[in-house]
Amino acid sequence: MPSAGNSGGLITIWNGNLFNGREISKDYFQITVELTSKLDNTVYFITNVYGPNSMEGKTEFSNWLLNVNIQPMQLLLIVGDFNYIRGPENRNRGGGDHNDMMHFNNIIINLDLVEIPLKGRQFTWSNMQDTPLLEKLDWIFTSADWTSKFPNTLATPMAKLSSDHVPINIQIDNMIPKCHIFRFEEFWLDFEGFIDTISNYWNSCTFHADSAKNLVARFKSIRKGLKIWSKQFSQLNKTIENCCFYVKLLDGIEDQRDLFQHEKNFRKLFIRHTNKLLEAKRKYWRIRANIRWAQLGDENTKFFHAIATHVFRSNYITFLINSDKLIVNDHEQKAAILWNSFKSRIGTAGTSQMNFNIDHLSRSINQEELEQPFCMKEVDDIISSMPNDKSP
Questions:
Q1: Residue-range domain boundaries for the chain
Q2: Tens-place pLDDT, residues 192-235
Q3: CA dist 118 to 78, 126, 215, 366, Å?
């Protein structure tokens, strides 16, 4: 779409060696293309928008956005200058139309869109004045299925050289770097062997005379034991898939003949175990999504995945600057910088000395007066000393 003077204009470009592309819809404020991967035939929908400034254009644009039809399992990415802000924090000074903010947020909620947060910049547009007005007008949204398939989709700013908008680089990946810290999982309590593991490793650690060291050693021993024991749950999805395969296999056999009793019992065990694993998976994502209102039996798993991934993106640290003023992007190097900073702040343990005399601080007090009953004079004195507007 060509520009109108210095504003507007849209272009969507793709690599023909990797994708087959075709235009789905086009208007003066949006272009939607369908990209089909030549590698695995996965279909992606990319919508590039440029929100109008005029009242009539905004109304037409918001009506189109509200009526976007997102199909189940559709991988959709909507990017561009929406010319809307979501809240007062998206401006560096007061102002903004609160009705527009509410309308824009309602559209996002109705479409179940997931925002990709921009890491490293608070605002994306400037009026380029000496005392500039800064706003966040550029947004990146995805469908819930996109978030499930590509949980590590990140948006980072680039250098603003000529435009009044900040260029944004979107990185798409389906791998999230995992930390090495120990996490206790709630669903472990439902599986056999958990209590025995706790008991065995609690009692098997070396005894220390210092009670604090003894307690820490026992907790470390339990952590080691649970790490070893929990490896059987490291591939929940694969285990659930295998169980479902055998249930379907027995169902297929039942279509051909009656099942023997031991085959029926075998299928019941598989179904019971699969339901237990599905409940463990639900608890796993419920904790990470931090959705406290999730009820037992809620099957909206994709939404759980989307919320959990959104929390990860918001907390993700894109880069750190080390002591040599160099930008560090590697996950392990960022972890080392944080560890060294924490260690330098805490310092090292040392011996403490008591520089006061406890015997000097203590003194004998005559407690006989405390045992005597209240007299009427004390009560009268207290009441007479109270302000006139206070009730005794």
A1: 3-171, 186-317, 318-348
A2: 888 888 888 888 877 777 888 888 888 888 888 888 888 887 77
A3: 14, 16, 43, 69
Specify the residue for token string 């700013």: 157
Q: What is the pLDDT of residues 22-38, one digit of tens each?
A: 999 998 889 999 999 98
How far apart are the C-alpha atoms of 141 and 191, rounded to whole Å? 39
Tokens representing 306 are 């989307």
Please return the burial class of 390, using the count of CB atoms within 10 Å of its CB with bins 0-12, 13-18 and 19+.
Answer: exposed
Residue 88's SS3 state is helix
Tell me how far apart the alpha carbons of residues 359 and 77 are, in angstroms, rounded to a whole number: 73
- Positions of E strands within the chain: 3-4, 7-8, 19-27, 30-37, 43-50, 76-81, 114-115, 125-126, 134-135, 138-142, 154-157, 168-171, 320-321, 327-328
User: How far apart (Å, rounded) are the C-alpha atoms in residues 266 and 169?
Assistant: 52
CA distance 311 to 305: 10
Residue by residue, DSSP assigns 348-367 as: --------S-HHHH------
How many Å is the Cα radius of gyration of the chain?
32
CATH class of 3-171: alpha beta
SS3 112: coil
Query: What amino acid is encoded at 56 in this protein?
Result: E
Distance, in Å, from the CA atom of 392 to the CA atom of 380, rounded to the nearest integer, reads: 11
